[in-house]
Amino acid sequence: MPSRIPPTKKSLIERYITSARSSGLDVIIVFNKADLGFSERTLEDSKVYGELGYTVKFTSVLTGKGIDELAGLLSGKSTVLAGSSGVGKSSLVNAMLNGDSAKTGEVSQSTHKGKHTTTSSSVYYLPGGGKLIDVPGMREFAVSDTEGLDEAFNDIAELSRGCRFNDCTHTVEPGCAVLKAIEEGTLEKRRLRNYLRIKQYE
Length: 202
Ligand SMILES: Nc1nc2c(ncn2[C@@H]2O[C@H](COP(=O)(O)OP(=O)(O)O)[C@@H](O)[C@H]2O)c(=O)[nH]1
Ligand SMILES: [Mg+2]
Ligand SMILES: [Zn+2]
Prior knowledge:
Elements: H1 10-22, E1 28-31, H2 40-51, E2 55-58, H3 67-74, E3 78-81, H4 89-97, E4 122-125, E5 131-134, H5 138-142, H6 146-152, H7 154-160, H8 177-183, H9 189-199
Parallel strand pairs: 1-2, 3-5
Antiparallel strand pairs: 4-5
Helix pairs in contact: 6-7
Zinc ion (ZN) binds at residues 160, 163, 168, 170, 173, 176-178.
């Protein structure tokens, strides 16, 4: 049975863009299921996003359209796949890995909403380097907002200003002020672990 295209939600796309940009991430907007065709409105919207300076790609996991090109764009980078359930995120992961490691689900025909087959975030490593982070849904993505994270862990954010490298990951770097605080017992190891666990979804 062919799957239906969930309606494109512009406000949702904009929330994703806001979240991504506030974290300093580059944005690629992917319109998947090209084999099913797009409405005039969706094509118009895609043009607007292009004019705003975002990279826009059309893909089809079914026909393979745009998959290699997308994989090329993501090669060597860390990518979070954000999008409503059922749009084909897991299918795209599988197509780019040339394997079958992400679980995909059917889109419910009556509601156009995908069943939630992905229940926890998964990380997949691209053959040419880089990783794909498949998150189960919006709530998970919201947690990746950097401002929110730095607010919730303001002690770590504060400490990290003292790190030698400004892109310090607080895991192995010399001159890391966060690791030093753990050594000195002023920061809880568990707290840093939790911070890093959330931060990986950025
Ligand atoms: N026709 C068509 N169906 C697709 C495409 N990509 C994914 N699907 C189907 O859409 C459904 C949901 O895909 P899934 O990858 O689980 O979506 P996710 O919830 O975003 O991870 C599955 O039935 C897929 O087989 C595509 O490019 N074209
Ligand atoms: Mg999925
Ligand atoms: Zn550090």
